[in-house]
Amino acid sequence: MTLPLLEVRGLKTVFHDLAGAWPAVDGVDLLVHPGEILGLVGESGSGKSVTGFSLVQLIDPPGEVVSGDVLFKGEDLRSASEERLRSLRGDRIAMIFQDPLMTLNPVLSIGEQMCEAIQEHRNCSRQDALKEASRALSRVGISSPEARLKQFPHEFSGGMRQRVAIATALLNEPDLIIADEPTTALDVTIQSQILFEVQKLSRETGTAVIWITHDLAVVAELADRVAVMYAGRIVETGTVDDVLDRPRHPYTVGLLGSSAASASPGERLKQINGAAPSISARPSGCPFRPRCERALAVCEQIDPSPQILDGHGYRCHNPVPEGSAL
Amino acid sequence: MTVPFFELRGVKKHFRSKSTFAQRLLAATGQAPPPPVLRAVDGVDLSVMRGEVLGLVGESGCGKSTLARIATGISAASAGDVVYDGRPVVQLRGKERLDFLLKVQMVFQDPYASLNPRMQVHRIVGEALRVHRLLPKNEIDAAVDKALTEVGLDLAYRNRYPHQFSGGQRQRIGIARALAVNPDFLVCDEPVSALDVSIQAQVINLFMDVRERRGLTYLFVSHDLGIVRHISDRVAIMYLGRIVEIGPASAVFDKPAHPYSAALIAASPSAARRKRDFQPLKGELPSPLAPPTGCPFHPRCEHAMSKCREVRPVLQEIAPGRSAACHLHTSDNA
Hints:
The complex is a heterodimer of chains A (326) and B (334). By secondary structure, chain A is of the alpha/beta class.
């Protein structure tokens, strides 16, 4: 067993308001091994993005990471100094956001920004930095990179901008990329180009990726392991085959059934009734209970504890029997 | 052969950027090129049979939303005809035109932008009934309640405002508003794209229930192939303002005839595939301001021949009920 690249235990991030502190992330455990692609799946408000931000300590008030350990190569990021975090971010750990315009500065040329990302972390001449930036652009499939480096973000299309953001994230060959819904706003043909680049780079450079998304199908095609989030916690985790082919948690089963691909055309979809609880009104016990068809009396009182961390785990008192048809 | 219930004949929608006086002067004297024309929809023929669901698929910028707006009469076509029940809509006047506008209703993509934030739900749903005096005043409340019940909204919420609802509930309000005037034809423009997967399934099921109950006809516009395949009887695939392929949903998805359809289907992710080696389609959607010559798809097409660069293929029948616009399927190369 190799040493995990990232180990997260009991991560809890709350948002404060006048009425109290509401947990957006409520006791998340994660393991990421070197070179592995982990899909972090959940719907709006499940806490998947806040988890991503919490990992690199990018939570601003009124949010606060209140407990848990985030160990990156054994180093605790929660107690790391801001200086240390700055030197890690963009170097060993890179982030890609849903909206590339959020990452890119509109008044600086692409070359300027990419050079900054290199020179911030390494002693190297501007000439060498530019050369490296141009190599990174061609790696993600951008043609005539030298000319492109002189252009500004608004001169690129959405798909191109996202590729620039990915190329920038890859400049320092990070050990871990945290990608927050990077292809959600893009068309499928562009998405498949980007998935192709990410997969290639992960295979070539051994970079581990946490791919945060709401799309189970993307995870199925891209990831090695998957973690499904609901109401701030991970309800099921395991290899892609385990979780998608042999799901045990009723929420995972419901999500899979909700996708149009799971039913034959014209047939009713197996919907999950109701909606996810808001952060300030989480039910007692298991948060999925009000929407769950398999809920027992115990689910109301006791929050199911997480099962095994590495391997196939789920948080449920009454899991779907193994081998039952979807 | 039955008469189509709804038809688009040679519909075009061209947008011109507004030019300044100086630009017009320069253009008129030949010192500057005329302002470019954006052909958002460039000659679409489409017929919808009563009771069917026609899915319309394409990527951003292909003109599918513009086409949906033309079909409902929200935008006027630059050329071509919208034919409803055998009669061109432009010829309709007065009562008949109003009838068309009410019988063809639209459900919009963004449930946040398409509901008036200052109106209570019952006023949003009942507005058309009130404005057009479709029902006597004392019957409107009952009709609104019926529409709200039909889409699965609790009547206790009828006095609430849109911001008090979740995205899925808002989309239900949008559907109730469309149903309140008893339409025959619903044009749905990406009606579930803004919703979470578990909520999407609820709304898709609602669309199918309503259709069954009322015998509605749908034009269902979406970029999500999985959903279109699920809900549609027939599917049309659009690229750069034109339909490149149309046919029964199962046939098109199982054996796409146009290389673009094939690429689109291959690119859309599926939970059944694992650790795929992605084979991306090269290039991006060209700008509709400067579409390529010949077949608009040829710069990205792996089967492109010299002919594709010069001659634009027309949409022609390749099998009963199936058409494609591709030189690979032009039998005699005439």
